[in-house]
Design a protein that fits this description.
Helix content: 40-55%
Oligomer: single chain
Largest sheet: 11 strands, parallel
Strand order of the largest sheet: 1-2-3-4-5-6-7-8-9-10-11
Strand content: 5-15%
């Protein structure tokens, strides 16, 4: 965030006849036209195709947009934001926590009507209110370049939800990513809790109510989203939705043809809401909703039949081994889920064993990652996991640590995988990059993480354990679900320098 002091508007000689003051009913486009009217006339430009004059034209339009914003600020009686003025040509604009208010937001919207640079606009925690969100959505009906909008933590309430719903029904913008969340809680405080105590810790963890959307807001938003085909990613976390809101969401998902990712973490869903939400989506975040073992039982039934969900986060939901056993039953039949996050649920290693055995019993499972990173496991668990990975080599289980592991085995477990690969490459007179490219069926430089994990486990040139494979994925990943073999060169360089300096280089 830019902490520069706001700029004062540039002083200009006022014309003798001042523009008529605008009333509250006039749209931001009228004000934009008014600002153009008070600009000084620009001299006529001669026709030319030189690079210099093309560059001058670009500067002309940038200057004109700056003047438009300054004039809008004057009309709205607000102080201009220097960060906005300096970054109007950038694709990413972060104005979070700038205290813009409705009028400051309206001035920003006026300036963005004709802007062709900004693709992502962050406006969280700015006290937008209904007037501010209305200005932004009017702007989006004219601006077809802006694609991602964050208006989280602005306490928009029911009136704001109504304005957003009317906008979504039109399908008239290029917006595909909409964030309507709240402020993140204190994660450090959450992680102080252990097992069943986590839930109690969460009850006293301070966090805002997001945009204060309740079930009546969910009904409006879902009516609009049922017919909206442009929004792909929607964040409604940290609001006040209960099971009724979850049912509205479930009905919407049965009709919506565009939405792929929905974040509803930190709401108040229990059993009915959790079940209603699992249909029709590819990615669903239901962490911190407190549906417990009863909700987990219902989720197990849903997972048995669901064929679309790829990513499911049900972390911090007070699910014990009893609920894990029900989820495991569903996983024995599920053929679509790839990522399951169960972090900070009060489960033990017995629950972890149930999970991985359910994957073993399902020959059609596509599971690539199970996150139980608060659970201590044993060497016996690792042996079972090795057996599961022999059938499903794409699987990675993230756990906390291994209890009672001997020092000798710890050294073997932590052996540097890049050193082993470099040794193989030297013996066979090839490069490390050649080794990695040989794992890709088409010889490309990138590969999905699941496919890479499967290929590296199945290859017999450099035997690696599951921990070493996980370390390789971390070092070669340039995106959450993709490894890039170009990173192998820099990783190897880092390791060699570590040898020179007598230390291991952790990048």
């Amino acid at each position: 965030m830019d902490n520069d002091e706001p700029l004062e508007p540039e002083t200009k000689d006022e014309p003798e006849t001042k523009p008529t003051s605008q009333n509250s009913d006039e749209t931001l486009y009228c004000e934009a036209e008014a600002s153009v009217a008070v600009e000084k006339e620009k001299p006529a430009r001669e026709s030319s195709e030189t690079d210099l004059e093309i560059e001058d034209t670009e500067k002309f339009f940038t200057t004109r947009q700056n003047e438009l914003y300054l004039e809008a600020c004057r009309l709205m009686s607000v102080v201009p934001v220097s960060y906005f003025l300096r970054n109007m040509e950038e694709s990413y604009m972060n104005l979070n926590h700038h205290g813009l208010g409705p009028n400051g937001t309206k001035a920003i919207a006026i300036a963005l009507v004709s802007n062709t640079s900004v693709v992502t606009l962050e406006l969280a925690d700015n006290g937008l209110m209904e007037e501010g969100i209305l200005s932004l959505l009017e702007m989006l009906q004219e601006n077809y370049y802006l694609q991602e909008l964050n208006v989280s933590d602005n306490d928009l309430g029911f009136k704001g939800a109504k304005i957003i719903s009317e906008f979504l029904q039109r399908n008239t913008s290029s917006l595909w990513n909409l964030q309507l969340s709240g402020e993140e809680p204190d994660r450090a405080r959450i992680q102080e809790g252990k097992g069943a105590l986590v839930w109690k810790a969460l009850q006293t963890t301070p966090f805002t109510a997001g945009n204060n959307f309740r079930d009546e807001s969910a009904e409006l938003l879902c009516q609009a989203l049922a017919a909206n085909y442009q929004i792909k990613t929607l964040d409604l976390s940290h609001n006040q939705f209960s099971d009724k809101g979850g049912e509205y969401m479930g009905q919407m998902l049965a009709l919506n043809v565009g939405l792929q990712s929905l974040d509803l973490s930190w709401n108040h869903f229990y059993i009915r809401g959790a079940v209603a939400l699992c249909n029709g989506l590819r990615k669903l975040d239901l962490s911190m909703n407190g549906f417990g073992n009863e909700g987990a039982t219902a989720l197990g039934e849903v997972l048995r039949l669901n064929s679309s969900l790829v990513y499911l986060d049900i972390s911090i939901n007070d699910i014990s081994n009893e609920g894990i056993s029900k989820i495991s039953k569903g996983l024995e039949f599920n053929e679509s889920l790839k990522v399951l996050k169960l972090f900070l649920n009060p489960m033990s290693m017995d629950g972890a064993v149930l999970l991985i055995l359910s994957i073993k019993r399902n020959p059609k499972s596509k599971m690539e990652e199970i996150d139980i990173s608060n659970v201590l496991v044993s060497e016996q668990f690792l042996k079972i996991l090795d057996g599961v990975c022999a059938i499903h080599p794409q699987l990675d289980v993230v756990y906390k640590a291994v209890q009672g592991l001997s020092a000798k085995k710890t050294v073997l477990l932590w052996a540097n995988p890049m050193k082993l690969i470099q040794s193989y490459a030297d013996q066979h007179k090839i490069t490390v990059l050649d080794f990695f490219k040989s794992l890709s069926p088409d010889g490309k430089m990138t590969m999905p993480v699941g496919n890479f994990r499967k290929a590296i486990i199945l290859q017999d040139k450099v035997p690696l354990n599951l921990y070493q494979v996980r370390e390789l994925v971390k070092k070669l990943s340039d995106k959450p679900d993709t490894v890039n073999f170009r990173a192998s060169a820099s990783t190897m360089c880092c390791w060699l320098w570590g040898q020179v300096l007598g230390t291991w280089c952790h990048s």
